């Protein structure tokens, strides 16, 4: 059957043409695009909720306690501290650019940001709360209740809380990273050393897992592809099982969602177990366990780290 060009094809064509013109240097990493179509009222309400400790059982912990937006969107700890000072057993990822993730959490157990919200609200070592408590507290706050009425035309519900937080998180895109400038054709946006680091990032195959708009976040991979990462040197934690915990499939044992490397210079310690305290160590681990380098070269590691530093974008000002 002859192909009939719909008007929508032309729109797509223009989109492709404009991308080509903006010169992504033919690479599988693309610049972060500003989110569109967000309702400012929802975003503002989501921002309030994100910073509200009343979402936790004892009113001491907000989302921002573990996802500090002035510090890269995480908490700088190996393991986060929840209500009653309890430590968890997995490293908190950043919430910046999290809308680009294929699924949420290291094991991908939440399909999207909306579903993710129930996790920390109920987690006994995070907020240890429940929807009845949260909604009662919101209902007792006239100003917050008015904000729900204005955004949704009605009172707070669990789903409305999820939707508002999702809208806020979707707004958390970090634009204008120097590397994005380079991708768009600005030769002076990054140093020669950073470009050498990027060449190494490609040559070693890092880019096969960390690619796309978020430089990661879009596939699942085993930690320890080339060498066994989980050796007998430390006891296994339940969280080390990764995606297996969610699917119970043997092939998902030690499989994790590949993290985005956007803003990675700000989000140490690294890995689901917080075991790498700085980026040099993290790159060393990746070269050894994911890529199979026997003795990773320190000069190469340094250059890759210089490249990774060019992935730091602007913190959206209105988030803080
Ligand atoms: C994971 C948002 C509260 C610690 C995440 C993720 C998002 C998020 C979007 C997934 C990111 C990714 O997979 O890359 C929120 C929101 C919260 C909240 C909206 C409030 C409702 C907290 C609190 C803590 C915390 C209070 C610490 C006590 C963590 C940890 C993970 C995580 C440890 C990783 C868990 C895992 O993968 O199993 N959070 N968070 N979060 N957050 Fe939060
Ligand atoms: C984690 C860089 C190769 C899959 C990380 C992290 C960095 C990094 C800095 C820590 C991010 C964070 O904790 O927020 C690199 C570099 C590579 C490379 C520089 C090349 C030398 C690869 C490859 C794969 C891969 C080839 C897939 C086969 C992963 C996974 C994690 C990760 C699954 C999360 C591990 C965990 O904590 O459970 N990578 N990576 N990486 N990378 Fe890579």
Automatic annotation (TrEMBL):
It is an enzyme of class 1 (oxidoreductase). Heme c 1 binds at residues 63, 66-67. Keywords: Heme, Iron, Metal-binding, Oxidoreductase, Periplasm, Peroxidase, Signal. Its cofactor is heme. Binds 2 heme groups per subunit. It is found in: Periplasm. Its EC number is 1.11.1.5. One of its GO terms (cellular component) is periplasmic space. Its main location: periplasm. Binds 2 heme groups. The keyword Heme applies. Heme c 2 binds at residues 206, 209-210, 286. Residues 192-312 form the Cytochrome c domain. One of its GO terms (molecular function) is electron transfer activity. This is Cytochrome c551 peroxidase. It comes from Botrimarina colliarenosi. The lineage of its organism: Bacteria, Pseudomonadati, Planctomycetota, Planctomycetia, Pirellulales. The gene is ccp_2.
